[in-house]
Amino acid sequence: MSSTKAPDHYDLLVIGSGEAGKFLPWMLSAKHGKKTAVIERGRIGGSCPNVACLPSKNVIHSAAIAHEVRRASAFGVSLSGIDPASLKSDMPVIKARKDAMVKDVNGFQGFFDMFGVEIIRGEGTFVGPNEIQVGGGRALTADHILICTGSRARVDARIPGLLEARPMTHIELLDLDVLPAHLIIIGGGYVGVEFAQAYARLGSHVTLVQRGDQLIPREDEDVVQALSGILAKEGVRIITSADVQSASGTNGEEVTVSIRSSPGGEEEVLRGSHILMATGRIPNTADLNLDAAGIKTTAAGHIVVDEQLRASTSVFAAGDCAGSPHFTHMGFDDFRVPSVLFTDPELARVGLTEKEARAKGVPYRLAKLPMASFLRTRTLGPGASEGFAKALIEADGERILGFTALGPGAGELLPVISLAMKLNAGYRQLADLIIAHPTMNEGLVELFLLHVPDGTS
Question: How far from chain centre, in Å, is Cα 170?
Fold first, then answer.
């Protein structure tokens, strides 16, 4: 034992209070009378409500308002005596609004108390297969342990000068109360793309550098091309197939980033005021002493789990630390995988992309519909009808294999598709729906009624 006092024993111990660490102890304690506890070294509720998903959407919404005000005349709204081009973003006010939202929604401690789940503050480390020590003192044992410690933004220390330049992650960016004059974003995934558009709309010059040959590499090329065109029209400079060679200067003052087109291309020096690193995330597993519990990790640090998320006989892992895609809801249910990129227009997907289907050798039929045929978009002003929706239908049946939409509020289309996929409802059942007019979901009826090619059977 790790101390002379017998360890406190629980039915379930959870390390981390984020999305994966909330619902299971809540349900087991409230509905089944189990003794549960959650160990948390940081903020209750994890990253999403405190420093990630919700705070970033506040800033994105402020940017959307700025964008609409600048083009108010296109909607027949006159700003008397005001030149929309002179619009300024009040970053202290934007930050204060974000901070107020975080304070308002962060009542998770009350939920843990209400459901009878003990919160134990401190850092938990394994000292045995079923035993955890908190803060080097209190010893705890449990029948089952769930690890959901999440992840953190990656900053590549191998790039010469980068650490000395003190680049920002999304956390520091969201805490800025000044507008970057020129924001250089390294990484063209979800985080990089969302912030690129938002800060361009707020008034920053934005350069987005992506190592691969397209932004958002998991998505299909036609989707990314359409979105990249929209970003470029809003002033975002996009550089793909480029490696960062070095960085210098001081973030917030003056920075330079040297990039080289790959493979073997010319070098270019980017000069800006701020650097945002958006090159992926690192699992928070290094401090858990997993060897003491016989738990293995991948080379990247993710916990190795089976199909039931089991890491050992009595230990499970869920969410980012187990290698799931880094969306909050993935920690709640790792096997239903919708995702939304909160650009304008939104990019929403559930299930297979075309390139995933081809890679897996899955035959499919493609139904595709321009966003202009979603009649609601015609009411929303310039650019709202850009984009499209597409669905992958099994070649010899009616099941929906995947769905992607690029359009206004596209994420709100996903629940209908996700439910159909969950229930194994065929696309014809969606084509038979009566949906209120004119809503975005109405376009799904046309997509599935008129645009699914004949099957092979």
Answer: 12
CA dist 244 and 208 (Å) reads: 12
Residue numbers belonging to the annotated binding site for NAD(+): 187-194, 280
Domains of the chain: 8-45+106-153+282-331 (3.50.50.60), 170-280 (3.50.50.60), 345-450 (3.30.390.30)
Instruction: Determine contact, residues 270/259, Cβ cutoff 8 Å.
Output: yes
Q: What is the pLDDT of residue 334?
A: 37
Helices (H), ranges, 115-234: 170-174, 190-202, 221-233
Q: Which residues are catalytic?
A: 437
pLDDT, tens digit (0-9, with 9 covering 90-100), for 389-447: 999 999 999 999 999 999 999 999 999 999 999 999 999 999 999 999 999 999 999 99
The residue ranges of the chain whose pLDDT is under 50 are: 1-3, 327-335, 457
177: exposed, middle or buried (Cβ count in 10 Å: 0-12, 13-18, 19+): exposed
- What is the C-alpha end-to-end distance of the chain, expressed in Å? 65
Crossing angle between the packed helical segments 190-202 and 221-233, to the nearest 10 degrees: 20
The DSSP H or E segment spanning 96 is helix 91-105
Tokens of 285: 């597993």
Distances in Å between the Cα of 236 and the Cα atoms of 184, 197, 282, 386 are: 10, 7, 27, 17
Q: Which residues are annotated as a binding site?
A: 57, 124, 149-151, 187-194, 280, 320
Whether 309 and 335 have beta carbons less than 8 Å apart is answered as: no
C-alpha span between 64 and 384 (Å, rounded)? 13
Q: Which residues contact 448 (CB under 8 A, 6 or more apart)?
A: 367, 391, 427, 428, 430, 431
CA angle 113, 115, 121 (to 5 degrees): 40
Instruction: Quickly list H helices, 309-394.
Output: 354-360
**Residue list, annotated binding site for FAD:** 57, 124, 149-151, 320
| Torsion from C-alpha of 333, 340, 453, 448, nearest 10 degrees | 80
Model confidence pTM above 0.90:
yes
Mark out the alpha helices in 403-441 (DSSP H runs): 414-422, 427-431
